[in-house]
Amino acid sequence: MASPFTNHVVIFPFMAQGHILPLLDLSKALSRQHIKVSIITTPGNAKSILNYISSYPHVYLIEIPFPTIDGLPKGCENTSQLPSMEFHLPFVNVTKQLRKPFQNILETMLESQTPPLCVISDFFLGWTLAVCRELGVPRLVFHGMGVLSMAIIKSVWVHQPHLKVKSVFEPLNLPGGEADANSWGVVVNSFEELERSHIPCFESFYNGAKAWCFGPLYLHEKMEDLDKSSSSMLMQWLVEQTPDSVIYVSFGTQADISDTQLNEVAFGLNDSGFPFVWVVRSKAWTLPVGMEEKIKGKGFIIKEWVDQPKILSQRAIGGFLSHCGWNSVLESVSTGVPILAWPMIAEQSLNAKLIVDGLGAGVSVKREKKCGSSELVIVSREAICEGVRELMGRKGKECKGESTSPWTSG
Ligand code: UDP
Ligand code: UDP
Q1: Any idea of its EC number (predicted)?
Q2: CA dist 234 to 152, 229, 250, 285, Å?
């Protein structure tokens, strides 16, 4: 058996909560195997990361300053702090300026007593591959998305099938294809039972590199860690509720949601008659006049960070109104909570399709579609109320088991 510290892995997460958290869980899992882990991040992210890893003796934090450039709001070192979605692309681009400090760190490590075995870096930090190759360190790419959505995104990128159809109503033929990435391996936060049928197609895009699906990474967490804060008011209230009676609502850490839309959610939840726990990201938004009285005792609105996996694992929770961020999907599937799917941005609509059509583990919120427009349409209180009732009214929480493909692929 390996003695402590013979192996050393470098982890470099992209600076977004949904990307950082699973890699922290992976770091802890490696640390429990006596593998030294160095996490590279910027000072603005270091504080919350330290909270997660401080009790793990083999996990170290290495800070590199976040580049300051015109056009990005000062002090924003995590996408969840950006004032709106339009800053996301410039934010991703600015991380390329971390190349030189990253190279310096790797060079120093290579001369140390424990040179790194490999670097695991986020797929948004593709530029790390060139540095790793130059220094002869294998790079594994980390995918915080599901296999299905990555396979589709890669197929669209390589084969451009959308250029071959005449209208948005024609089905796309999604072929497999040649490699577009040359990393040593691929680490995916998913599990084979969930997405087995899509793994070969996904792997076909990587020059023979293997994809390791070792998610859900959050389940690597030791149970005693999940037990923190069990005395809070919310937890006490949840314990008192009937099993499967409460709907949990969260739209993740990224999407911008207008006050008008938040008002509709408040009315919709209230009209549904089901008790709810709703985590709201917008600190400025307040409940519409008169609502506070109405929801008293029936709903919790929380504007702070919560332990979402812990909430989802409570017996009282019978459904999750979710934006279908991949981490939320994994947490919901793992705790057996069906989803009312309301995808908003990024690959979330693909995740929603996997949940609703592939797994039969949820229903979709009804909304008007504006064809050919990326403009978000307000989801009405009636649609939310109806969706919550439909989801919470389902008998049992069983799903189909292993996913069937919601797409045909050529
Ligand atoms: N955060 C987190 N885990 C925590 C506490 C906070 O991931 O235990 C996230 C939080 O959502 C935010 C970032 O870390 O995106 C900074 O949180 P903090 O509370 O420090 O700042 P604020 O909410 O005032 O921006
Ligand atoms: N999360 C949490 N507490 C909060 C808000 C979010 O624990 O108050 C966690 C949630 O459990 C998930 C992650 O943050 O693990 C959000 O990632 P996801 O992929 O669901 O959505 P994103 O924020 O990337 O859109």
Answers
A1: 2.4.1.-
A2: 39, 10, 15, 21
Q: Which of 189, 253, 279 to mutate to test the pocket of ligand 2 (most atoms within 8 A of CB)?
A: 253
- The CB of 189 under 6 Å from ligand 1? The reply is no
Residue 305 Cβ inside 6 Å of ligand 1? The answer reads yes
Nearest CA to ligand 2 atom 16: 18
ipTM tops 0.85: no
Ligand number with the minimum distance to the CA of 351: 2
What is the amino acid identity at position 351? N
Closest to 79 (Cα-Cα) out of 44, 127, 28, 123: 44
Per DSSP, the chain holds a count of helices (H) and strands (E) of: 16, 13
**Ligand 1 centroid to 83 CA: how many Å?**
15
Predicted confidence pLDDT, tens digits, the chain (410 residues) = 444 567 999 999 999 999 999 999 999 999 999 999 999 999 999 999 999 998 888 999 999 999 988 888 989 999 999 988 889 999 999 999 999 999 999 999 999 999 999 999 999 999 999 999 999 999 999 988 998 888 888 888 778 888 888 887 777 776 656 334 678 888 999 999 999 888 888 888 887 788 889 899 999 865 545 445 545 889 999 999 999 999 999 999 998 899 999 999 999 999 999 999 999 999 899 999 999 999 998 999 999 999 999 999 999 999 999 999 999 999 999 999 999 999 999 899 999 999 999 999 999 999 876 555 555 678 999 999 999 999 999 744 444 444 444 443 33
328 C-beta closer than 6 A to ligand 2:
yes
Residue 48, ligand 1, Cβ within 6 A: yes
**Residue 351 beta carbon below 6 angstroms from any ligand 2 atom:** no
Query: Mutate which of 327, 330, 342 to test ligand 2's pocket (most atoms within 8 Å of Cβ)?
Result: 327
Answer for the pair 307, 226: CB distance below 8 angstroms, yes or no.
yes
DSSP string spanning 38-107?
Answer: EEEE-HHHHHHHHHHHTT-TTEEEEE-PPPP-TTS-TT--SGGGSSSGGGHHHHHHHGGGGHHHHHHHHH
Query: Measured in whole angstroms, how far is the alpha carbon of residue 62 from the centre of its chain?
Result: 23
Q: Which domains does the chain have, with CATH numbers?
A: 8-220 (3.40.50.2000), 229-404 (3.40.50.2000)
Distance 241 CA to ligand 1 centre (A): 28
Contact present, 291 and 259 (Cβ < 8 Å)? no
